[in-house]
Amino acid sequence: MNQAKQNLRVQQVIALLSVVLLAVKFFAWIITGSVAILTDALESIVNVVAGFFGVYSLYLSAKPKDLEHPYGHGKIEFISAAFEGALISFAGLLVIYKAILSLSQPHAVSKLDLGIYLVAITALINLFAGLYCIRIGKKNNSLALIAGGKHLRSDTYTTVGIILGLLLIYFTGIQWLDSVVAMIFALIILYTGIRIIRSSVAGIMDEADLNLLREMITMLNSKRNPNWIDLHNMRIIKYGPMLHIDCHLTVPWYFNVVEAHQEIENLSEEVKKHYGRSIELFIHSDACVDFSCPICEKMDCPVRKHPFVKKIDWNLENVSANHKHSLNS
Q1: Domain assignments of the chain as residue spans, ordered by start
Q2: Superfamily for the 210-320 domain
């Protein structure tokens, strides 16, 4: 099963699971009359909506490239994640609103033991489902699955807060404690939602992933060979599960087309070996010039004009710059 199909299959299961858990939470609210459990159930409606929206976005992102979408359909995942982040934020605000209402208009609750058991079961299922989503999402570079997993994990935190409130009510008889705990965890899910929105907007705007860029540069720096005189003008763009990488590789000027292309293939293989095959690389070969000699480690060069002086380690600054490396760069 390829990555896109695996992402879609996982999201389909999550969407169906969210419907079942929603039904369990509403049943728990009906038998207990707890406003805190109702709050948790209302927040779970967001899970259902986001789950099915995620199914559609992953279905669309899995479609192959076409004439109208030469880079594929992967950016729909950023829109899906932004939508889900907005829903999470709204749910956090809704929890706070309901908790304040509960404080001002307290209600008696019943059958708390059964309600706690039911809600605890949903929390465990959500936690494991969320962690699984995040793991598969990171493995397959799927922002939609990562966002969905974080949503399920934050839903678990909310549910845990509500369970704590219910336990305090059960053992102390103090009705307003569940609202206080619910508000604390509502702030946590509100923060999670804002972070997901921020990450999604960064993807839509093609913001550079500096951590990924640094990691890739470090890896290539450790694998470089003497024919790779320098690497510059590198950019990485995410399109759903795909990574698109542009860069310029400087090679000896006397290499013919076949030899230069082989060096490009060698560099591409190192990247794909480390990051998997969901990568498109567009590597332009540049010819070295006179000022390249002092940093060139190719000691068997038949046309060297200047002696070797020192090796220039690749880093974020010189690999991102749009010019060949020299002793002064």
Answers
A1: 3-204, 210-320
A2: Cation efflux protein, cytoplasmic domain (3.30.70.1350)
